[in-house]
Design a protein that fits this description.
The protein is an alpha/beta fold. The chain has helices spanning about 40-55, 70-75, 95-105, 140-150, and strands at about 1-10, 15-20, 25-30, 35, 40, 60, 80-85, 110-115, 125-130. The strands form three sheets. It has a five-stranded parallel beta sheet, covered by helices on one side. The longest helix is centred in the first third of the chain and has 14 residues, at about 40-55. The termini are close together.
Amino acid sequence: MIRHILTITNKGIIIPFFIFIIMKFLFLDIDGVVSINNDLSQEKLIFVQEIVNQTDVKIILSSSWRFDESMIEVLENYFPITDVTPQLEKQARKYEIKQWLKINSPDFEKAVILDDRMDAMLHHSKILSIKTDSYFGLSNEQALTAIEFLNDI
């Protein structure tokens, strides 16, 4: 996204500036991604932390845990949570993600979905959907794939 800003110097000269703002999002599920058998995995949380550190991506929680304030507090010890997806009754998770993007960032640059459910997967040229194994969670290879996708502009 390009933002146009006008600056007026002390001599009254108008100088246009263009700022390129990259809007990248990571839609994060918890169970089957960073929580295995109801236990948060330190290793999986560090994988997500690395994605954030290497890409400057904003995390949007799309998990059913998104309304649990204590879970959000625990996660924020590893990485900041920017927002949560809306809850749409009787809708697949991908529609909640699409709704969030439509309302909050229709001009987003890139997004990654990390989820163990097929109903969260979206097919879009600017979105990479990564389906994790419910019993293993996020792998190092999947984290690296997300980093490469988000950094390839």
